[in-house]
Structures are given as C-alpha cells and as structure tokens.
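Hey,

The postdoc asked me to send both predictions to you directly instead of through the lab channel. I've kept everything plain text so nothing gets mangled by the mail client. Protein one:
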Amino acid sequence: MSEELNGTVLLERPVEQVEQPVPVAVQTVSQPKAAVGTVVHTPIEVKPKPVYGFFKRAFDIVVSLICLTVGLPVYLIIALAIVIDDPGNPFFVQDRVGKNGKVFKMIKFRSMKKDAEQIKVNLAEQNEYVSIHFKMENDPRVTKVGKFLRKTSLDETPQVLNLLTGERDIIETTKKNVGFSRVVAA
C-alpha cells in the first residue's frame, strides 16, 4: 500500500521488513486501547508528469459528470430512503487526508443514525478491535437503509462530487481519517 504526502509517495511496510533504521516522526492521539502493529512509511521521490496529469484529471471530470447525470435519480431515491428511515441530513461528511497531505471533506450517504457519535460513547466497551477503530458485528447505530447501502457500497457514491472538484482521483490510495495516529518517515 502507498499514499502520497507533499509530492512524495510513502510505501507502508511492517517494521520487521525495514532493512535499516528509519527516523520516524509520530503524531499521536488519545487511544482507548493499544494499537496493534506498527507501520513505517518509506519516502520515494516521484517526478511530476504534466501530460499524464492533464489526461488523468480530464478523465476524472468526464467520469464524474457521467456518474452524476446517470446516477442522479438513484441518488435522489437513496437520499429520500435515508431521510424516511432516520430523519436528518442524508449525507455524512468527514475530514480526510487527500492529495499532498491536504485535508478535504469526504461526502458519503449517511448509513448510521444521526446521533451515532453520542451512542458510540455508550458502546465503547463493546469495540471488537484492539485499536483506535471502532467496530461491532451488529452495530445498533447502523440504520436499515444503511445496512443495504454498506452491503452494496452505495454509501460511497456521493464521493463522485469529490472526484469532480479534484479533491480525490478515481485511482488513488485509501485516505486515512484525520483523527487517526499517523507514522510518517522524517
């Protein structure tokens, strides 16, 4: 896996695979449980390719416009179903790390109850992961419509707006939530 930070591609490898010590800067957040596994990011210089970048961006715009045009009726039905199932904003917006380490607002269809963060506080002891991530087998915060959206990955479709604005690309690595700990090679 890799991610890009300030024009530098960072490859993730388990610490055991690092041939020589790498200076590491660690940004920590408070963690209810200890994180499992350590990952070191090794920087690799990437030369910009302007022609490739132009065609990649043009492709992203064309694909996003087609998806928005063709998918609009489906998006409206999904939004209506979410509001009927659990009244409130049908969208979930979260800060993510994008190109060159820039933070952007990722848009998804809301698959949980609107007060999911308050409910999570009461469910903290039932977290099935020993990490900063929260996961439950039958999470009571997920709505009926949300279960279907997650199963079919339709909750991800509004990200086509992020694609249109250039905040993300069709082909890119998964971006981490801003609140998670990050280990970056110095």
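Protein two:
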Amino acid sequence: MTIAEDAAKGAPYFAARLIRGVKNGPSPEWLQKRLVAIGLRPISTLVDITNFFTFDLNRPLHVFDADKVAGNLTVRMARAGEEIVALDGKTYQLPESVMVIADDNGPESIAGIMGGEASGCSDETVNVFVESAYWDPITVAAAGRKMKISSDARYRFERGADPEFTLPGLHLATQWCWIFAAAKSPRSSRQARCPIRRAPTSWMRPAPKALSAWKSTKPRSARRWKIWALSCRATWPKCRAGVPTFWARPIWSRKSPVSPA
C-alpha cells in the first residue's frame, strides 16, 4: 500500500489491514435489525459491518476483495481517460483532480466517496483488505460535486470525520471480522500520522458555567469536562484541557470566556 506524492495532501492519514479466511455470509440478526431500523438493506456480514460503523461511529470504511486486486494498491490522482464502475452500478469518468485508490489494472475506488464494483465483496470472498482513512474534507467535497456523486461516506468525510479514530476504527472492525466472519491472520499497513492533535486550551473558573449553565464547583465541573473527552487538568481556578479531534472546526467565539492557550 503506497500513497503517491500528488495525493499526500488529500490522504494525510491512511491505515489498512489484510485479513484472511473470512466467511462472508449473512450478518447476525441483531445487526440486520439495526440496519433495517434506519432504512438500510442488510447485504452480507462485511458490508453490514462497514455500514454499521458509518452510521453508528461516524467511521466510514471500505472493504476490498483482496483476491480481486491486481498487484499493489496505491492512493493517487486519477489519470486522463480513466473510468470506474462504482458500487451503485454506474460508470463514472474520472477527472484528473479526483483522488482514487488504484491497483495495477486501474482505479478500484473513488477515495472517500464510493468503492468500485470490480473489487467488491461477495459471498465467495475469502481474503479482504480493510481500509480506514482520514480524507481531506475539501478534496472529497470538490470531487463529489464535480462528479455529482452523493454517498454516506462523502457526507461524513467532507464534514470532517475524527482523524484520531482512524486507527482505532480499523482495530474495532478487525475484531468484528474475527467475531462475525471467522477471520484470521491479520496483517497491517499504515501510512503517515494523524494530521490533527488535541489543541491545548485554557479557561478560568467561571467558563464552564458561562458555557453550559453548570455550577462551577471544582470537582463537579472538572469531572463533567472529562466526560466530554476534554482530558481536563484542573489547577483551580485555572483549567487546561485538550480539545478532542472530533471537534474539527473552531468552537471559540470572540465573546467566549474560553480562548486558545
């Protein structure tokens, strides 16, 4: 698995895992019921796992049938004249500004938007390549608009998925493959690092009450901010916290009593 230089900005964090020996039958009944409850049609264990992760954890994944992939997979920009038959059954001409995941035969997936039919999973799938990536929101949004494709993955990536959950999401998906698809023999690959880290933020004692109507008592406020995954460290009356990466956009206003440290 490699990332081309021209796609490095659009794919700052990419993780994948080769999993062998899966049995891709129907998913468990409880999982099917949950998907049906939100209007999705259960398809197979592997597909249902990725759909569940997309809607429940905001972590879009893609699963390639490894035996249908020719050679090495590469994240790169599309080349002139390339096209792909996507999972929706439609054929798309790929502009050169669109990022793709390609093998030796050509594009196998439109990065951050939709996978390709040629390397899709079926009931006969035995070995899979699970991809979990953080795609640049602007790159995904521009590609989706240019190609006029709407998908659940695009909806989430263009709004900013949590980059810190890229690798944990892959680990959890692997665990589900072990449990529900009898998988074995995983082998991992990771490119680059998380592009966003927890930004340290400081505030004085009145801030929690001003922002949330909580009573600003020392133990209670610190405890509740910890629940919000702020990794709060309180040296009263001043608090210091790491803002979680799922807050991808700035939340501070000029009038806010909380300001970046």
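Summary for protein two, as requested: Residues 199-260 form one domain.

Thanks,
C.
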